[in-house]
Amino acid sequence: MMVQEFSRRQLLWPGAAAAAGLVLGVSLSASGAEESNSKAKSKGKSKGKSKGKAKAEVKRCVVVWSEGTAPKEIYPNDINGAVAEGLKDLTGWEVVKANLSDPDQGLPDTLLKRADVLIWWGHKKHDQVKDELVDKIVKRVKEDGMGFISLHSSHFAKPNKKLMGTACSWGAYESDSITLKVTVKSPDHPIAKGVKPEFTIEHGERYSDPYVVPTPKAVVFEGVATLKDGKTDPSQQGLTWEIGKGKVFYFQPGHETNPVFFDPNIRKIMANAVQWAAPSR
Ligand code: ZN
């Protein structure tokens, strides 16, 4: 991706940083920001120089975190890369990618503090996420109103479980589905704005109701999985809560062997969810 290449060049050749930053700044302000964690850090350090100007146009910040285990043939830049790419046209937003393998597990205090929304995709490495970081995330949601968006197998992610305060288990996990038809259950909800009333994606893994969580504030999306044997399985797909001061959205689609996060319908939902979950200023 273009932005990442600039970031690498900046690291290799500091002399090019100003020029690259200039080009980057122009393109980002025109189409929404997407930048790596390292770029975000360097930006933070130089903040003081353009303080007056920056204050007038402070962007909101969404951090897209993942553990880095998605197959490269489906997600060459991992799942957070695909999600971040889908958010790049959000006006007034800076999109930062964070990975479990980054320093501070991708979420140093400085980044977590300025994140308006945190999107989380994890599956095999939930246990590696430090409890200390989980506590900080939960505090940011409950006390400061940071939005939290939990994707697919992140139902068992530590921050998701701690925010819900329940087992967060599904009734069944089966790899026998072919497609998932997603339907809008709450058409007036901001996360459903402009989303087709019904669309179908390839999705090879279904989670079956019940989802052991507190009663959601809204069920925005429902779905029906069509199985290999022709049977169907309906289940909840998109749920919202208010936890303390923060808004939380869980979205069931997003299995790593399906290119779900490249789908324009899903990208629309993600963009809506980010804007909905952000705390009001
Ligand atoms: Zn899965």
Structure explained in plain terms:
The protein is α/β, with parallel strands linked by helices. It folds into two domains: 1-31, no CATH class; 32-45 and 57-277, Class I glutamine amidotransferase (GATase) domain (Rossmann fold). The chain has nine helices and twelve strands. It has helices at residues 2-12, 17-31, 37-45, 51-56, 78-86, 109-114, 131-144, 158-164, 264-277; strands at 33-36, 60-66, 93-99, 117-121, 147-151, 172-174, 177-184, 198-202, 206-208, 218-227, 232-243, 246-251. The protein has a ten-stranded mixed β-sheet with strand order 1-3-2-4-5-12-11-10-7-8. Strands 6-9 form a two-stranded antiparallel sheet. Helix 1 runs antiparallel to helix 2 and helix 7 (131-144) packs across helix 8. The site of zinc ion has 5 residues, from loops.
What spatial order of strands do you see in the largest sheet?
Answer: 1-3-2-4-5-12-11-10-7-8
The outline comes out as globular
In whole angstroms, how far apart are the ends? 32 Å
CATH architectural name of the largest domain: 3-Layer(aba) Sandwich
Q: Quickly count the helices.
A: 9
- Label the structural class: alpha/beta
H and E order: HHEHHEHEHEHEHEEEEEEEH
- Uncertain segments are 1-35, 38-49
Catalogue the ligands: zinc ion
What is the assigned CATH homologous superfamily of the largest domain? Answer: Class I glutamine amidotransferase (GATase) domain
Portion in beta strands: 25-35%
Work out the number of β strands.
Answer: 12
The whole-number mean of residue pLDDT values reads 87
State the CATH class of the largest domain: Alpha Beta
The percentage helix is 25-40%
* Main sheet attributes: strand count, strand direction, barrel closure: 10 strands, mixed
What do we call the CATH topology of the largest domain?
Rossmann fold
Count of spatially separate domains: 2
What integer value in Å does the Rg equal? 19 Å
